[in-house]
């Protein structure tokens, strides 16, 4: 781990191929035996050393042939085109887990569990997210199209609200759970339909979740 200190505070939408509850959140095998998913981040406030990251966005695409903890994954980072060279370098170091304590952040763990990292993409990231409303939409031209919606009661059609709380997690403390649809292109291409979606507020630094 490097000595540089960093912090990100913002919001996240994530979508993976598991069922709504996502067994991975409960240390159980993934629904279909393998994992593919993405996260999109809106950084409201952040820094890496002396480099400010306020107002930037980023995304990550992942794929594993089995459960995440068995490794052999693939990953690709997408960085906001508006970022300066210094901000790009800072975000890549954070997303690659280079300045995190071992096991402290989702970025460091996912990097450790991945054998292949593709070249990052620098692109425009359109992103709208309502955590409490469980709605999201992100478009990164030529790379990602994703959206999130609330789970609906199959009998009444009413919105169903449920959360996952992780007092000792490495990504979020509380996430609103919904469903998502995603289509990705490039070296990690997949198409997800009506699967697990999470909507969360994040506050992370090199030591993990800021509580």
In short:
With 211 residues, the chain is mainly β. The protein is 9% helix and 49% strand.
Features of this protein?
14-stranded mixed beta sheet, 9% helix
**What string, H for helix and E for strand, traces the elements in order?**
EEEEEHHEEEEEEEEEEE
Count of DSSP H/I helices: 2
What is the makeup of the main sheet?
A: 14 strands, mixed
Mean pLDDT: 96
Which residues form runs of ≥5 with pLDDT under 50? none
Strand content: over 45%
Domain tally: 1
Tell me roughly what share of residues is in helical segments: under 10%
Blueprint of the fold:
Layout: E1 6-16, E2 35-48, E3 51-52, E4 57-64, E5 73-80, H1 85-95, H2 106-112, E6 114-117, E7 121-123, E8 126-130, E9 135-140, E10 144-149, E11 151-152, E12 159-160, E13 162-165, E14 174-184, E15 191-205, E16 208-209
Parallel strand pairs: 5-6, 5-7
Antiparallel strand pairs: 1-2, 1-15, 2-3, 2-4, 4-5, 8-9, 9-10, 10-14, 11-12, 13-14, 14-15, 15-16
């Amino acid at each position: 781990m490097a000595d540089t200190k960093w912090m990100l505070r913002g919001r996240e939408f994530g979508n993976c191929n598991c069922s709504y509850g996502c067994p991975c959140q409960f240390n159980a095998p993934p629904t279909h035996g393998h994992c593919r998913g993405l996260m999109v981040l809106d950084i409201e406030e952040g820094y890496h050393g002396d480099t400010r990251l306020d107002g930037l966005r980023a995304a990550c695409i992942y794929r594993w042939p089995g459960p995440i903890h068995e490794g052999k994954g693939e990953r690709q980072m997408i960085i906001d085109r508006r970022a300066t060279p210094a901000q790009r370098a800072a975000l890549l170091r954070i997303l690659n887990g280079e300045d995190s304590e071992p096991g402290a952040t989702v970025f460091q763990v996912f990097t450790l569990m991945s054998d292949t990292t593709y070249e990052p993409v620098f692109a425009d990231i359109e992103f709208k997210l309502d955590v409490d409303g469980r709605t999201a939409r992100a478009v990164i031209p030529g790379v990602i199209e994703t959206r999130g919606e609330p789970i609906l009661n199959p009998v009444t059609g009413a919105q169903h609200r449920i959360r996952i709380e992780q007092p000792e997690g490495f990504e979020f403390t509380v996430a609103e759970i919904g469903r998502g649809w995603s289509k990705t292109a490039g070296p990690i291409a997949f198409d997800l339909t009506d699967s697990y979606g999470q909507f969360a507020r994040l506050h992370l630094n090199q030591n993990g979740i800021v509580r």
